[in-house]
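fyi for ur records
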Amino acid sequence: MAEKVAKLGVEREKDFMYYVKDGEVWKVQRKQPGVPKGRPEKVADGGFEVDTNYIYFVDRDGDVARAKRAVGGQKRKKKAAKRRAAPRKAAKKKASKKASKKKVAKKAAKGGKKAKKGKKKGRR
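which gave:
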């Protein structure tokens, strides 16, 4: 959960986005179609130091709060690991098919079987 860092009581407006940068609270107009990009405006000076292990934000009450930063993200499920293994098997099958075609071509060149001549069917 989040813990409050500074009680500022910032009055929030609906069309603005609020964020914390270097211990200060800033606001910028939200993006809207057909409206040019707004310039950030400093709202309040928080008077605190920012720790990189936390994410700082303006909460519903208009105060600055922080939450522990998730380092490394979430661990993957086991199903994802199985999906990654499947393409490797397919690549091995393709390699073995190519090798068997080469063997047939070598035998045909020696005279064991006649090689097919003619146009290949399919896309060009």
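The radius of gyration is 32 Å. thats all i got for now
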